[in-house]
Amino acid sequence: MKTKFPVWFSFLFFLTAMSSNAQQPQQPASPDASDAPASASAQIKTNPLTPDEQDVILRKATERPFTGKYYKFNGKGVYTCKYCGAILFRSTDKFDSECGWPSFDAAIPGAVKQTPDADGRRTEITCARCGGHLGHVFTGEHFTPRDTRYCVNSISMNFVAADKMKVEKAWFAAGCFWGVQYFLERAKGVVTTTAGYMGGKTKKPTYKEVCSHATGHAETVEVVYDPLQTSFEELAKLFFEIHDPTQVDRQGPDIGDQYRGEIFYADDAQKAAAEKLIQILEAKGMKVATKLDSATAFTFWKAEDYHQFYYDKNGKQPYCHFRTQRF
Ligand SMILES: [Zn+2]
To answer: For 253-270, how does the pLDDT look when each residue is reduced to its tens digit (9 = 90+)?
Structure first.
């Protein structure tokens, strides 16, 4: 189970580059090619690093315990890769392990790569996007129910406050929102998801009102994602693969207009991407019933708490959704 963030929009704010040793020169230095992590792509724009940052991020050194700026830090927001800016961890997954470094029991899906150390004793974690060294991950310590501790060097990260994050949003209706949220929250680069209601007439609808078919709302999942790690098109492909887009006002056993398939697009680019995917499916012979509407015409209303992360809270698997390869 994850906790919810408030609604965020705005721009990414990088904290000033960290300087842990005043005796060393601190002018930004671009690493030469031999220092760059092997997985760093030439297409990825990376940030200049100080010599101390290069030691940890590029040469896998470890900052001294109890010295990092985020060890006892409790701001609300996310932690990004200092080298490339990808969102890596949520403050809601941070916990105090007393180990001397910032500790998290979960990472943004797909954002952190795990690789066993050469001696086989520990597992290194790196940024999946740029390859920058972050620290190590441990299990079997039972600090939290997830039994996972991402032990991260503060110097490898920047903190970005919740209201300063550069994120994008998408809204998908594909039947019962329990199953839709289950799949979307696990998608690469997704920062958070919320189950709710969209596309109807009334304000602050309740589940009972939506089920009465009097409000016109569809069960909808709001997705907040990092555009550096995924895209609306990637998320929309997943949307089309976790439900049957040919069904009208129902999805499997769930019947009613609140279970219709619909994309509430944020802008013309999202609309064009959705139309392109529908054309691909129609070219394969599917009669796609998915509605497309502008998100600006509607308000997304968060559903009752017991609908949020329903399957995760109850330890069950979705009965209503499963993934079928369509692209
Ligand atoms: Zn990175």
So the answer is: 889 999 999 999 999 999
